[in-house]
Amino acid sequence: MSAETPAAAPGQFTRRRLQFRAWRGARPFWAGLFVMLGGFPIMYFPYAHLQIGHLTVAMATTAGAGSLIIGVLLIVLGISLWFQKHVRVFAGVAAILLALVSIPVSNFGGFVIGFLLSMVGGAMGIAWTPGPGAKAEESGRYGVPAPRGAEPVDAPMDLSGTSPANEVNGRHSAG
């Protein structure tokens, strides 16, 4: 092998992994995952029958339906954080509120596990902001490429003191 030998084309696995990495980076992926993982213990523990030796422990509460609804809503909010990133603030606030409601309704929020995961995921969803790569993804939406040479919306300001309002016939006027 020499230095001039071309590199091998990436395989199917590498290409898919890089595609997933790009998809994950353009949305609040970890926030959605934490919210979904928080919904499972909240939904599961009220219906679980734990076996300790010959002793069966039932965690059933009178609010079993409430726990099921809270858990399903948290899972739906986690999925919406993944696929509808523009509703991230609403989904984050709703996840935090549902996590707080799960404390009295669902065995202390799924034995605090679901509560903590949902709180952290909701806070991450609220705090997430699109990175620089997300702007390029949005500009090519619906298969329409962005115009060549188009200036981004949040372009840096010119702080040199000259602006079109201060220019008169190519001369700079004071103030």
Description:
Residues 134-175 are annotated as: Disordered. Keywords: Membrane, Transmembrane, Transmembrane helix. The chain crosses the membrane at residues 25-45, 57-82, 89-105. Pfam families: DUF6114. This is Integral membrane protein. This protein is mainly alpha-helical. It has a domain at 30-128. The protein is 55% helix and 7% strand. It is built from seven helices and four strands, in the order ααββαααααββ. The protein has helices spanning 12-25, 29-44, 64-83, 88-105, 107-111, 113-127, 132-139; strands at residues 49-52, 55-58, 167-168, 171-172. The strands form two sheets. Strands 1-2 form a two-stranded antiparallel sheet. A two-stranded antiparallel sheet has the order 3-4. α2 (29-44) runs parallel beside α4 (88-105) and α2 runs antiparallel to α6. The protein is elongated, with a radius of gyration of 25 Å. Residues 140-144 have low confidence and may be disordered.
Task: Chart the SSEs and their pairings.
Layout: H1 12-25, H2 29-44, E1 49-52, E2 55-58, H3 64-83, H4 88-105, H5 107-111, H6 113-127, H7 132-139, E3 167-168, E4 171-172
Antiparallel strand pairs: 1-2, 3-4
Helix pairs in contact: 2-3, 2-4, 2-6, 3-4, 4-6
